[in-house]
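Narrative progress, year one. The postdoctoral researcher (J.K.) led the effort to move from monomer predictions toward full complexes, under supervision of the PI. The following entry was the first complex the group processed end to end, covering 503 residues in total.
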Amino acid sequence: MTAQTTTEAASGAAGSWEPRLVAFFCNWCTYTAADLAGVSRMKHAPNVRIIRVMCSGRVDPQFVLEAFAKGADGVLIGGCHIGDCHYVEGNYKAVRRVRMLRRVLLGMGIEADRFRLEWISASEGEKVKLVINDMVDKVRALGPLGLPERFQAWDQELESLKRTVEAPLAEAPVHGR
Amino acid sequence: MAGKPKVAFYWCASCGGCEESVVDLAEGLLDVVEAVDIVFWPVAMDFKRQDVEAMPDGSILVSMINGAVRSSEQEEMVRLLRRKSRLVVAYGACAQLGGIPGLGNQFGREQILRFAYQDCPSVQNPDRVQPQPQSHEDGRVATLPGLHHVVRTLDHVVPVEYSLPGCPPTPRLLNQAITRLLSGDLPPKGSVLAPDIALCDQCPRKDSKPTDLRLDEFKRPHLTRLDPQKCFLAQGLVCMGPATRGGCEAACVGGNMPCSGCFGPTSRVKDQGAKMLSSLCSNIAATTEPDIDRTLATIPDPVGTFYRYSLAGSLLRARVPENAKR
């Protein structure tokens, strides 16, 4: 499935584009809920890659930015409800970071619907399904973010001088140190 | 002339402060001139581009290049120097991470040109003249360098061996770098030529930094009477010390101003702004979303605060333009 969806996303421009979501789920609540959704045979959109972390408070904002920079169209963080954190206050740290990171992302032109934090307890398998489906729909409506392709497009303006100035590198240094 | 190693200095999108920092070597500069031949230094010496073009490839030991790369002229000079040099050093925050010019990546190129030549309140330009790469007048053709769409760090354009961080780098770090590079005992490629530890570790105020900050609001330095001894974070100011590399000898803190992050991140961090945001925001006291938002609203410009010197070199690089969605 992974290989298939990767090629789908790569051929985005051809109209066969599918949203690609990265989800960071806390080991104690949301990941267990996703497991429950699985064993309960609930069906949700196949567009999400789930990464298990020990706590939503472990999600470094760098992880989120790197996911976007490497081609995610949306990033979802799932943690325990407030008051239920296995590490007491990890989810408080998560929500504080998320509130600020959202402003940074908006400032960088990344829409609010591409980044989401949800509290999903271990028994809420149904909520995993609803949240993923809803987010996939919203990201689909926004269209691809496609940062890797964008970076490539930006760097095309470097191609012409690269050819003219750097071409004859063959002349090895013989003088000096 | 034959025996001495050759050194070049060049500037791209920068303010000139990095050039000043070379002069800040003071009489140490005489020792440098004794040890090396400065073959190119537009701000101080009368060598031209043709002189560089005439040099054999790889004949310059090290080119110290400051400034971000924003124009085709800068890109061309950087590529030329890369070809002529065995080592290239990204000198200062702009070359290393984009620096202040990198903040231009929050706006599109056309937006910047329109503001600078039309919309800015102090501009009078009734004919809406904008600089053009080529213009014709009296049968002659005048050319100007083109403005790139985004600001780039030096290593986005050419391979770079080392970085000297800072806005500007300190004379001490420059001295150490030159000595090291001349000794032939080269540090591993990609090294940042400064201590690899956060500024807080070297801060004279570190003993007054509490383990749990529990901040209710962020104060701004120009509106606050600053305690000259106490940790700035403990005073409720944004100080980039926890996410910024040391080596500046805590110069700003010594002047009673919080760190704004010019030395960039340590080697363990990919994105200085995200790391600072992470550390700072997790330390506020509020526990509900409205309270959290109220506290965080006292940082009016998060991108400019957390990425003041590192936006062009950050993971996201530049703002995604609204109209570019496919």
